[in-house]
Model the fold of this input.
Amino acid sequence: MGTVARSHGRRGHVVVNPLTDFPESRFRVGELVYTKDGTDITKRRITEVRFQRGRPVIGFEDIHSITDAEELRDCELRIPESALSPLPAGTYYSHDLVGCEVVTRTGTSVGLVSDIEGPTGLQRLIVVKEEKVCDVPLVDAVCVSIDLRARRIYIEPPVGLLDLNDR
Done:
């Protein structure tokens, strides 16, 4: 759903960098979320929500001070996969794409998706990793087919794309 950016105020609220296309429905009073810090996962209930400059500012029932809130900095906010809403055809959750093999239409394996980058709602990039890391725009003109069952993304990269943005 997002990551905790920082504490906000003295009452234990936190500012969240949302990673969801549905922040208004995900961040609601009474909702249960899980904070993940390394391997530690804690269930928390949201008690307050408001949006400031497009980002949720939320309070949790067990966090009441700035000191407690600071401990949540950089924590991931998650929900169980069973709580996810079905998406329209042709759209995907980022976690469904991570780990997929990226293959050109000619059959050449590029590597595996290691991460999805870019702000929600804008063009997002697939970061592909094998012996090198490169960015592939997640747009229909380049990613021509996504087969989640086979865990493959077929691409038709413009000439030089895979060499141009080699990191």
About this structure: The CA atoms of residues 38 and 104 lie 35 Å apart. Helices lie at 23-26, 66-70, 94-97, 161-164. The chain has two domains: 2-81, 94-164. The longest strand covers residues 40-52.
